[in-house]
Amino acid sequence: MSLAHAVLTSLIEKPSSGYELARRFDKSIGYFWHATHQQIYRELARMEEKGWIVSDTAPDAGATRKREYKVLPAGRAELVRWTQEPTAPIDLRDEFIVKLRADAALGEVDLSGELRARIAQHTEKLAHYRAIEARHFAGGDAMPRAARLQHLILKKGIMYEEGSVAWAREALGVLEGV
């Protein structure tokens, strides 16, 4: 996936200034596709050159150079085209797994501290995701299709964090001989 497609999706949801887009991105798509604000601004310029988006002076710009970006029909068509391409499965690349393999090869290496830190990080993110779920998705099946799809995306994050916590606890048990 390119950053352009993530940005197009976000702009279709709501036309925004670059700053607003970057902030919204951090609170939504950024959970599963990370980009710095600088990368987003560079991508906005490339997309405008391609004719996928247009920018105008934002209504609240005042004396600033604040621009508001909107998706053009060519950008919408590009997003539709991209959604029809097959998606490659995720390749798992986790440095910690290699450390565990090294532990198995070397003998006991104390990785328990790192595992405890991972458990804490995943538990914190899980709590954050569950708070989002409680705040925005209490409607269940009565929600509109778009909200149900967004909830489904959040559920994947919840399941990932739950699985990560469970796996790390099991690994910690093995390391500690439990």
From TrEMBL:
Transcription regulator PadR C-terminal domain residues are 92-176
Q: Which domain of life is it from?
A: Bacteria
The alphabetical list of record keywords is: DNA-binding
Task: Report if keyword Aminoacyl-tRNA synthetase is assigned.
Answer: no
Question: Which Gene Ontology molecular-function terms are recorded?
Answer: DNA binding
| Pfam families with a match to the protein in the record | PadR, Vir_act_alpha_C
Q: Where is the Transcription regulator PadR N-terminal domain?
A: 7-79
Q: What is this protein called?
A: DNA-binding PadR family transcriptional regulator
Q: Which organism is it from?
A: Rhodoferax saidenbachensis
